[in-house]
Design brief:
Number of helices: 4
Number of strands: 2
Strand order of the largest sheet: 1-2
InterPro entries: Ubiquitin-activating_enz
Structural class: mainly alpha
Largest sheet: 2 strands, antiparallel
Order of helices and strands: HHHHEE
GO molecular function, one term: ubiquitin-like modifier activating enzyme activity
């Protein structure tokens, strides 16, 4: 039996090295004379199985998404109702800005906002680095970041008297 030999350093880096192993196995298969299932048959069977699995997974994901959306909408309505009740009890006149903020809070309730994680993580890392290295004094700030509008505001905390 011939052995496929190749120096890895001389191979084309754009070609996956596994292709050479496949070619060697195909040559070996041909040399043995054993009749095997063709690669085309294997690929079509694998593709059919993959398509069936994807369809089942898609249906399950769609059902879960619908349930999650319904639960989120119910939670949003509950938060809005609670906010209206609190504002009414405190005698606060509901303005467009308050209604907008309440709606944003309700929509963002229990969701992951990567933008918030990135901003807060960056700020926290910066302050921790300042504290550890003692290069700069950490600044006591209040940071507010709205992920829905991607707006941020910083308020400096006044020094202690």
């Amino acid at each position: 039996m011939d052995v496929l030999k190749a120096k890895l350093g001389e191979m084309n880096p754009k070609v996956n090295a596994a292709i050479y192993a496949v070619l060697a196995l195909l040559r070996w298969d041909e040399g043995t004379g054993v009749q095997r299932r063709s690669l085309e048959a294997f690929n079509s069977a694998a593709a059919a199985a993959e398509a069936a699995a994807a369809a089942a997974e898609g249906a399950a994901a769609a059902a879960a998404t619908t349930e999650a959306a319904a639960a989120a909408a119910a939670a949003a309505r509950e938060i809005e109702a609670a906010a209206e009740k609190v504002l009414a009890a405190e005698g606060v006149k509901s303005t467009e800005a308050i209604r907008c903020a309440t709606k944003q809070l309700a929509l963002g309730f229990n969701k992951q906002f990567n933008a918030v994680a990135a901003v807060v993580g960056g700020l926290l890392t910066q302050e921790v680095r300042k504290y550890i290295t003692r290069e700069q004094k950490a600044v006591p700030n209040v940071v507010v970041f709205d992920a829905l509008t991607s707006c941020g505001a910083v308020a400096r905390v006044p020094p202690k008297p």
